[in-house]
Amino acid sequence: MKMSRNAIAFACALGVMAMTGAAFAAVPLYRLFCQVTGFDGTVKRAEVAPDQVLDETVLIRFDTNVRGLPMTFRAEQVSQRVRIGETGMAFFDVTNTSDKPVHATAAYNVVPERAGPYFQKLQCFCFEGQTIQPGETVKFPVQYFVAPEMATDRESRGVEEITLSYTFYPTQGFEQAANGGSTSGAAG
């Protein structure tokens, strides 16, 4: 069976379009997979806080990083001690130190990785594009809890300290491509 040159060109063009679409879908699909499973220390998103609060506590440490951006990023608190199952609230300050708007996204993870499935967020600014104006300081809240099931899981039982780490990185180019040329100004 012999294919015409037009059919081969069409098949190649279709393949390139499919691969380009897969490249753009890979990040959100991987993010969703990690959020659902807690894979690789990724924190899950939760709709409601647990009904059960244990007497056992865990120390939550906050780590902030910036990659390739003219901004400062810090946690208002270095750490918090919370009871397992209790809802905690942490605040983070981001300041654009340049004279131009900064387009950024924050990625996060927790250490130790075995705590990832149990550290869950009710509210977070992560994985949403942020536009921070020149000289502007923005305060971002994170509402979280450590699920009570962590205390009975044989692999995570005994975890006394969890570090929640955020890294802001530039996203203007990715957001423009993903949004058909416009940038996102959402503050989550």
Question: What does this protein look like?
Answer:
The chain is 21% helix and 37% strand. The protein has helices at 5-37, 172-178, and strands spanning 44-45, 57-66, 71-75, 79-83, 88-96, 102-111, 119-123, 130-132, 137-146, 161-170. The chain has a five-stranded mixed β-sheet with strand order 1-7-9-5-3. The chain has a five-stranded mixed β-sheet with strand order 4-2-10-6-8, with no helix packed on it.
How do the strands and helices of this protein lay out in sequence?
Elements: H1 5-37, E1 44-45, E2 57-66, E3 71-75, E4 79-83, E5 88-96, E6 102-111, E7 119-123, E8 130-132, E9 137-146, E10 161-170, H2 172-178
Parallel strand pairs: 1-7, 2-10
Antiparallel strand pairs: 2-4, 3-5, 5-9, 6-8, 6-10, 7-9
What strand order characterises the main sheet? 1-7-9-5-3
Euclidean distance between termini CA atoms = 55 Å
Order of helices and strands: HEEEEEEEEEEH
Number of DSSP strands?
A: 10
The mean pLDDT is: 81
C-alpha-based Rg, rounded:
20 Å
Give the proportion of residues in helices: 10-25%
Shape: flat
The number of helical runs is: 2
Specify the structural class.
alpha+beta
Q: Could you state the oligomeric state of the chains shown?
A: single chain
Give the uncertain stretches in residue-range form.
37-41, 174-188
Q: In percent terms, what proportion of residues is strand?
A: 35-45%
Let me know the largest β-sheet. Answer: 5 strands, mixed
